[in-house]
Structure formats: structure tokens, C-alpha cells
TrEMBL record:
One MF term in the entry's GO annotations: phosphate ion binding
PANTHER family named in the record: PHOSPHATE-BINDING PROTEIN PSTS
Membrane-spanning parts: none
One Pfam family cited in the UniProt record for this chain: PBP_like_2
Record's protein name: Phosphate-binding protein PstS
Superkingdom per UniProt: Bacteria
Family: Belongs to the PstS family.
Function, as annotated: Part of the ABC transporter complex PstSACB involved in phosphate import.
Keyword vocabulary terms for this entry: Phosphate transport, Transport
UniProt lineage: Bacteria, Pseudomonadati, Pseudomonadota, Gammaproteobacteria, Enterobacterales
Length: 204
């Protein structure tokens, strides 16, 4: 990534999460894909048997160690890093290109997944132009069978609004939006699967 750069002769202090976290799950999922030894010996999970490193609780704890210890490296979510002016790096994507984290590179990773099979997609190390290799989605679970039809319909209206008009708010908070093609698949799934007690679709 940085040919010709003179690096300091100092030990690297690894900082990782001490608590179980989705951030750790995504990060270790990426490591398991790009390193076979990591995959076979450590694997992926909300918590893993870390071979080294200091444990910090939450994004705050990891960031505090990284900022305080010389030569340290750690991982936090992008929004936290950006909003707290932390230094972050480019990474090699699945196509061998150096990519920086951004709302665009997150969306590019989402475009590379096959959403037709399932919405539970692992977006780490996805193929695609300028796709950030440690991308993840936030999942929302909704019951297919709604015993309270009015409440279920209002829930769908809220998330429909979020997809229609929430993009600017998400971007302002340094999160990315899903590609429109995926949003259309989600709406189709709502219509086909989320129904009231009589079998009537709640999303119209």
C-alpha cells in the first residue's frame, strides 16, 4: 500500500474488543476469509480466543487504548472513527485494489452480494469495484405472521419511509444506504411474506 514509506522500528500493540460485539464478528469474518491460518485456528465470532492484544470495552475502550499506546492498531466502526477524528487505513479489496472506507465503498460491497438467495448476506470481502472489504449490514427482524395487523402495518410504513427518505440522514451519520435494487427486493418480500391472521398482505 505504501511503497517507500519509512516505518518506525517499534512494536505493534494490537487492541481488540474485550466484550462480545457485532463489530468483532464482522472483523473476524473478514480475517477468516483472507487468512487460512486465522480461519482454521481462530475463526469468527462475536468473541474469539484472540492470540494477542489488549481488550477494550466497546468502541470507546478500543479507541482509548489506540490513542494512548504508541504503535497501536485496533478496529472500531467507521462512523465512530470518522466522528472522533481517528486515523484509518485503506485495505486491499477482493480485486486486489486499495480501497478507502466510505459510504460509497460500503454500498459497492452491498452491490456485490447475491440478495436473491437471502437477505442475511455476509458483505465482507465482496467482489466489486471499490468495495470496502469489511462491510456489514444492520438487520431488522419482523414476524411474518402479525397478530396485530395495525401495528405491523405501521412498522412497515416506518421502514418504508426509512428507505424512501432516510438516506440523507443515514449518510449524515456516516452510514451507507442499500442499493435501490435491494430495497425493491425487500419490499417485494414484505408483500409476499408479512401478513395478518387472515393471510392478507400488510404492505401495499
Amino acid at each position: 500500500l505504501n511503497p517507500g514509506v519509512k516505518l518506525p522500528d517499534t512494536n505493534i500493540n494490537v487492541v481488540r474488543r474485550a466484550d462480545g460485539s457485532g463489530t468483532s464478528f464482522v472483523f473476524t469474518s473478514y480475517l477468516a476469509k483472507v487468512n487460512e491460518e486465522w480461519n482454521s485456528k481462530i475463526g469468527k465470532g462475536n468473541t474469539v480466543n484472540w492470540p494477542t492484544g489488549l481488550g477494550g470495552k466497546g468502541n470507546d475502550g478500543v479507541a482509548a487504548f489506540v490513542q494512548r499506546l504508541p504503535g497501536s492498531i485496533g478496529y472500531v466502526e467507521y462512523a465512530y472513527a470518522k466522528q472522533n477524528n481517528l486515523t484509518y487505513t485503506k485495505l486491499m479489496d477482493a480485486d486486489g485494489k486499495a480501497v478507502a472506507p466510505s459510504e460509497t465503498s460500503f454500498s459497492n460491497a452491498a452491490k456485490g452480494a447475491d440478495w436473491s438467495k437471502s437477505f442475511a448476506q455476509d458483505l465482507t470481502f465482496q467482489k466489486g469495484n471499490d468495495a470496502w472489504p469489511i462491510t456489514s449490514t444492520t438487520f431488522i427482524l419482523i414476524y411474518k405472521d402479525q397478530t396485530n395487523a395495525a401495528k405491523g402495518a405501521e412498522v412497515l410504513k416506518f421502514f418504508d419511509w426509512a428507505y424512501k427518505d432516510g438516506g440523507k440522514t443515514a449518510n449524515a451519520l456516516d452510514y451507507a444506504t442499500l442499493p435501490e435494487s435491494v430495497v425493491q427486493q425487500i419490499r417485494a418480500a414484505w408483500k409476499a411474506n408479512i401478513k395478518d391472521s387472515s393471510g392478507k398482505a400488510l404492505y401495499k
